[in-house]
Amino acid sequence: MKFDSLTLALGAATVALAAVAVSLSMGAVQDIDWLPAGEAREATPSAGPAALPALPAQALALTWQQSMFSPERKPDLVTGKSQASSLDGISLNGVIIDGASRWVLLQLPQKRRLKLAVGSTLDNGWTLDSVTPQNATFSHQGQTRELRLPMLRLPPPSKVPPITLPNVPTP
């Protein structure tokens, strides 16, 4: 009978694994050496995390010019003043709150995206007055409008009964 090298290698691996299994079942490597018990330490109350220093607005403005994760990113396009004086077609896509700094991410009707800081003005004259985690408040010529983040909801539960298996007695 002639054995090829693959058969011999598999046979040797099988014998080695069987030897390891037998040695483990016989109690090999069951001696555990624990470290001696240490003295109990009192837990010191820790103060909360230290507040981060506030960055100047100029340093934060650089993040809008170029992203560290996308080097080919360009600054937002600046367009001329638009004649529309309404927030129709503008949707609130995100809110950024970092200490005293607050921005909103808007989707404009032309599918253009815009980042706007509190106190900044849109091309159509609306000024961002305040930002909360769920909405942004704009004002223009004495009028006030509020844009809200869309609240995504799960679909209602299905009314179709679950699949049931037939009741088959075991043999």
Task: Summarize the biggest pleated sheet.
Answer: 3 strands, antiparallel
Distance between the termini: 46 Å
Strand content: 15-25%
Mean pLDDT: 82
Describe the protein's architecture and organization.
With 171 residues, this protein is α+β, with helices and mostly antiparallel strands. Helix content is 18%, strand content 22%. Strands 1-2-3 form a three-stranded antiparallel beta sheet, with no helix packed on it. Strands 4-5-6 form a three-stranded antiparallel beta sheet, with no helix packed on it. It has two helices and six strands. The relative contact order is 0.09. The protein has a domain of 58 residues: SH3 type barrels. This is General secretion pathway protein GspN. Keywords: Signal. It comes from Pseudomonas graminis.
Summed up, what is this model?
Residues 152-171 are annotated as: Disordered. The protein has 171 residues and is of the alpha+beta class. 18% of the residues lie in helices and 22% in strands.
Topology readout:
Layout: H1 5-25, H2 57-65, E1 91-98, E2 101-107, E3 113-117, E4 127-131, E5 135-140, E6 143-148
Biased composition (Pro residues): 153-171
Region (Disordered): 152-171
Signal peptide: 1-18
